[in-house]
Design a protein that fits this description.
alpha+beta; Aminopeptidase; binds coenzyme A; 215 residues; 7 helices
Length: 215
């Protein structure tokens, strides 16, 4: 798959109506309880997985939730007990999510390595970022991570916080010895995130840097 397309998968956000205000969230926490997931019980469903960071909950989406992410973002937000944001998945990314769903259904034991994870800012009950592993552990027992955050929330340490927790979790999973990542060599923000999380550069081409953090 074209690397640029894969990277764009992690930029699903940002087409919604932008709400005023920044961190810390000042919006009320009233409304339905957070993260009441729906759609369990079909091949590829996860045991609902959530990772907590100080400011976010990072949630592994189920097959049904990924269908909503693709087709009805408001329904996904509703299912997770979030505020309606007006966001939606970019049209060109829908086939990529469809492919991930199909992987999850065919290989349910690897669902956590194929699904999308969304980073929800606790104070605002809003999805501010999206992360994913690009498949199950490879021959070197490595999993590759990708991520993108809503531009409105950049440079507040959120990606570092979420990626750090995803990496910590992944390195604790059986069969995972390392997490790898790649960045375009102009992508200073992403490079900085990886550095802060503890990745080191292991190789490079004229356009890309390849990163790794081990157990
Ligand atoms: C990469 C990305 C996820 C970072 O998200 P973020 O929440 O802003 O990241 P953080 O705030 O945790 O850290 C960003 C760091 O980059 C630094 N940074 C950002 N732009 C920079 C620039 N132009 N020059 C130097 N440093 C820069 C910030 O200062 C910060 O470092 P610091 O904490 O040392 O000050 C976000 O920019 C993004 O979504 N980009 C588009 C998708 C993408 O490129 N994904 C990665 C490919 S898989």
């Amino acid at each position: 798959m074209d690397r640029r397309i894969v990277d764009r998968l992690y930029r699903i956000l940002g087409r919604g109506r932008r709400r005023e205000g920044g961190l810390p969230g000042t919006h009320g926490n009233s409304g339905p309880p957070l993260f009441e997931a729906g759609g369990r019980g079909e091949p590829g469903e996860l045991t609902v997985k959530r990772l907590d960071t100080p400011r976010m909950t990072v949630i592994a989406l189920t097959v049904q939730q990924m269908r909503w992410q693709r087709d009805d973002f408001a329904r996904l937000e509703q299912a997770l007990g979030l505020a309606a944001s007006g966001q939606r998945l970019e049209d060109e990314l829908r086939p990529i999510v469809s492919r991930a769903i199909s992987h999850m259904r065919r290989r349910p034991h690897h669902a956590r390595w194929h699904c999308q994870w969304v980073a929800v800012l606790k104070g605002e009950r809003r999805i501010v970022g999206s992360l994913a592993f690009k498949g199950p552990p490879d021959r070197d027992d490595s999993v590759e991570i990708g991520y993108g955050f809503d531009p409105f929330y950049h440079n507040r340490g959120l990606a570092t916080e979420a990626v750090g927790e995803m990496v910590r979790w992944a390195l604790g999973e059986d069969g995972v010895e390392a997490v790898i990542a790649e960045t375009a060599n102009m992508n200073v923000a992403s490079m900085r995130v990886l550095q802060k999380v503890g990745f080191v550069i292991v190789s490079a081409t004229s356009r890309y840097l390849y990163w790794k953090v081990s157990r």
